[in-house]
Amino acid sequence: VQLQASGGGLAQAGGSLRLSCAASVRALSSYATGWFRQAPGKEREFVAALGWSGSSTDYADSVKGRFTISRDNRENTVFLQMNSVEPEDTAVYYCAADFYMPDLLKGRPDYWGQGTQVTVSS
């Protein structure tokens, strides 16, 4: 499985960005998918996850109510809608996938995409 993330860029605080992650797999809906981020000088951290059925989601406390993860099964693409962004959201964002949701949530997914840079100015 290859994952290709895109959509990063520069936003002002309070603005919005939408990240996309296209998968080279026939049925992304068979996988749990998620987003992680790594800020300069910090460890990579969990942001959001979506179960394979599409009905279960999980978010880091720091993004709850602001970020939304979703998936387009027809396009085999996962999205992260980022609203009310803050300078603290500045990081490289990575998408990930795994058959097993718990491994994804633990930060040990089988598949990682390359990162996309998000920068939020105050």
Tell me about this structure:
This protein is mostly beta strands. 4% of the residues lie in helices and 48% in strands. The protein contains 1 helix and 11 strands; from the N terminus they run E-E-E-E-E-E-E-E-E-H-E-E. It has one helix spanning 101-105; strands at residues 3-6, 9-12, 17-23, 32-38, 45-50, 57-59, 67-72, 77-82, 91-98, 111-112, 116-121. The strands form 2 sheets. Strands 2, 4, 5, 6, 9, 10 and 11 form a 7-stranded mixed sheet that branches. Strands 1-3-8-7 form a 4-stranded antiparallel sheet, with no helix packed on it. The chain is globular and about 40 Å long.
Can you count the helices? 1
Distance between the termini: 37 Å
Unreliable spans are none
- Please count the beta strands (DSSP E, at least 2 residues each): 11
Task: Kindly state the percentage of residues in helix.
Answer: under 10%
Can you summarize this structure?
This protein is 4% helix and 48% strand.
Topology:
Elements lengths: L2 E4 L2 E4 L4 E7 L8 E7 L6 E6 L6 E3 L7 E6 L4 E6 L8 E8 L2 H5 L5 E2 L3 E6 L1
Parallel strand pairs: 2-11
Antiparallel strand pairs: 1-3, 3-8, 4-5, 4-9, 5-6, 7-8, 9-10, 9-11
Relevant terms:
single chain; 122 residues; mainly beta; seven-stranded mixed β-sheet; four-stranded antiparallel β-sheet; 4% helix; globular
